Amino acid sequence: VAVNSSVKLNGSLKLVKEGAGTFVAACAGCDFLGGFESVAGTIKPGRIANQSPLGAQNTLLKHSAGATFDANGISNSTEYRTEFAGAHVCNTGAALDGAGPFGGTTLTADSTIDAGHSLGFSGANVDLGGHLLDVSVPTAENYLCFNANNSFAIRNGTLRIHGLGRLKIWSEMTAPDLDMDIDCPLWMCWTSTVHNLTFRYQGDDYHQDNGMGVFRVGGTFKPLSKTFARVYMLDGSTLDLTGETGAWDTLSQALTGTGAARADHRLMFDPNTTVTIDVYGRTLSKGERLMKWSAIPANVTFKWDDATAALDNTVQPVLKDDGLYYGAETDPN
After folding, report:
1. Which of 91, 191, 246, 248 could form a disulfide with 117 if both were Cys (CB 3.0 to 4.6 A apart)?
2. If you average pLDDT over residues 120-124, what whole number do you get?
């Protein structure tokens, strides 16, 4: 381990970290402008709040494949632009609740985060560059948090998060071209607009909410568990029920929350919306119920996936008070 605790680095220089060891940037007032690139080993800031240990405000921190960035519990710090090119990100220091050193993040290759200690993005936009950001939150007391003053954007790629810890969304999230795959408890209190959304966490205590959190889905919603957050289907979206058997319940099952009744955590639809139902590969009987609800959704048109070869597309969706049916038993078709 190499530690810089006393040498102030200034000017236009650029630092490059090589080798398998760890470099700890622990000197305050390092205002160099050329950026910091890590091609191997680990770099981490010393626990110096608001003291620029890794360069001046908005300095670029670039981390290549085989390199690790350890946030090390640094909070309320100078925010850095970060680029992950196949890198691994972790936090071995104090929990960071959206107050870490990320001022704007770009991926140029698939990268990973291990939130063994909680890790946050604050006031930052994240451009995944068409890549996968795979996040592990292995323990229940920790989380990955997106927490900006008002709103933030994640774009162009896939965010996969899994583990016993939580995903916390504490700001409005605009991500119309993001694919989100959630296999962990969720705590959200703002609206998030995404493209594709998959829920797969099988735990009983699934979604914690203060009454305002909702996902708006413009692409495909795929529920692979019986519990899920509040979801609004937008016009032109698709509900993927290919993995279901029997009637899928639009009301989330095991659910805890604060400030919201369980009945609020269900599948809902924007007004004047057309939604495609994908049941590809399932063998359906005429009159079979596919979805269960307590009231017919208002002003929603359902249609079958045109690529569903196993379906007779002349059999129309039938809406009844208790759910959506694959035609009716007396349907003349």
Report:
1. 91
2. 69
